[in-house]
Amino acid sequence: MNVQKGFFASLFDLSFSNLITTRVLKFIYVLAMIGSAIVTIVYIGAAFSASTGFGVLVLLLCPIPFLLYVILARIWIEFILVVFRMADDVREIATRK
Fold first, then answer.
1. What are the pLDDT digits (tens) for 81-90?
2. Looking at CB atoms within 10 Å, which of 12, 21, 31, 91 has the fewest?
């Protein structure tokens, strides 16, 4: 039976028996949302520095790319999570025999 190690013990586990990817996915998702918010704010600021009309237009349209990026980041992270859960299930099936 595989005992769950701590984060740092798993990080320096050279046998790769404990995976850390599923533990850092929440952090990566938060970073993706923060990064997307920062890029959106920079675009809005740059648009307002160019002209007020362009700034208002970008302010109205920027939520669309922001949401699309966050949705795509979520889809990719969920895909990664599904792959790792499949690996856990395959490992469990293999140990039954």
1. 999 889 888 9
2. 12
State how far the Cα of 19 lies from the Cα of 63, in Å rounded to an integer.
Answer: 35
Q: pLDDT, tens digit, for every residue of 4-57? A: 677 777 777 776 666 777 788 999 999 999 999 999 999 999 999 999 999 999
DSSP per position, 55-80: HHHHHHHTHHHHHHHHHHHHHHHHHH
Question: What tokens does 80 get?
Answer: 């990664």
SS3 state of residue 11: helix
Q: Which helix (H) or strand (E) holds 26?
A: helix 21-50
